[in-house]
Amino acid sequence: MTGKGQGFGFGLGKMKELAEAFKKAQQVQEGAKRLQEELEQMEIQGESGGGLVKVIVSGNQEPKRVEISPDALTEGAEVLSDLVTVAMKDAYNKSTTTMRERMEDLTSGLELPGF
């Protein structure tokens, strides 16, 4: 009987690799959960008109609040609408960049096949 002690074609080295991969996956899962909580608590500000309008979102793009300077109100509805839209886009872009950077930090150092 050859290959005794190999068990299902896995050598001991492969079992160690597999155990290590599971351990890393578990660490990533725990890290992802912490990251999600962190992103929810985060406040990321987008602005327009040199700060006339500010939009604050969480790290996972959930709108938190909008701050409009009294000076912006004198600009009229159409301009104010544009200012809010630009501030929203700014906040959204900053939050997606933050999320992507945090995810890259979380998964760096992992050799995940196919990623």
UniProtKB/TrEMBL annotation:
Annotated Gene Ontology cellular component terms: bacterial nucleoid; cytosol
Sorted UniProt keywords: Coiled coil, Cytoplasm, DNA-binding
InterPro entries in UniProt: YbaB-like_sf, YbaB/EbfC
Highest taxon listed in the record's lineage: Bacteria
GO molecular function: DNA binding
SUPFAM superfamilies: YbaB-like
Coiled coil: 18-45
Coiled coil is among the record's keywords: yes
Gene3D superfamilies given in the database record: Nucleoid-associated protein YbaB-like domain
Subcellular location: Cytoplasm, Nucleoid
Primary location group: cytoplasm
Keyword set includes DNA-binding: yes
Subunit structure: Homodimer.
Function: Binds to DNA and alters its conformation. May be involved in regulation of gene expression, nucleoid organization and DNA protection.
Family per record: Belongs to the YbaB/EbfC family.
Protein name, per record: Nucleoid-associated protein G7B40_029125
Taxonomic lineage: Bacteria, Bacillati, Cyanobacteriota, Cyanophyceae, Nostocales
